[in-house]
Amino acid sequence: MPNSHSKNDSLQPSPSSDAPIPMPITALVIDDEQLAREELKYLLDSIGSVDVLAEGSNGIEALELIEEHQPDVVFLDVQMPGLDGFAVVKHLVDHADPAQIQRMPLIVFATAYDQYAVRAFDVNAVDYLLKPFDRSRIVQAVERTRSRLQDVGQDGAGPALPPSFVPGGGRGTDAGINTMLDRLNRQQDTPERQGSRLPSKLIVQVQSRLLLVDQADICFAVIEDGTIRVVTPTVEGVSKCRTLEDLLELLDPNLFWRAHRGFVVNINHIREVVPWFKSSYQLRMDDKKQTEIPVSRAQTRRLRELFNL
Fold it and tell me: Could you tell me the pTM of the whole model?
């Protein structure tokens, strides 16, 4: 009678096996659906040699976790409230520091809709996974990631820049970053937006009412849990825009400034600039609550330029 464990045992490498140990990979899993995150992490853990450092539920968390953990790869959902997967990539490129360019992560997109596949590969993502996840496809995505890390990072300069940032998959250059930005901008520049005039009013939902608000009256907008809240001196409601990038496209760039990744402020409604610790600042707005808004380190220079600090 055959040994009942013979089949399983045959799949395990023998203790004396000379098979090379796969290069370990660090990863983030970003998806607004908890079950999808859990499933993907379970499958990655089952593959081995993939260390999932953290999980996030939206694009804002993705940017924070990428900055904190500096992973090799990000498994990134396409459709998320607030800041979608493509907007996360655009933000990474747009804010790339040349001195840290080799710290950019590779990207594997994941979504339930195959309509984004062409766009994902147009920005040269490592791979594109469809939900529900198939283990063999995840294995393939991990192998592609490992291969790209080995190919581009073989000179020992640290984590490799995603080829999506560099034409032809080479190392990072200003020309490569500009090319990537141009691609993403063209994708977002829909015919409806081309040549359109900025509206003087925006729709803000306050409970069951849809109010028209003058742009000049908007104090600031903030994204919280995937919802964009718009605040004026007299009204506080919700925007129908899915991301702050979408909202900014409707706003006058001479008035509105993204002081922080989660906030857009109207510079005419800044009541006070408050010095904060470590040469940082906060903005006290002129809404009823006199809300204090942080200025990101990346935007501190812009603040100084605006007000000659």
Answer: 0.51
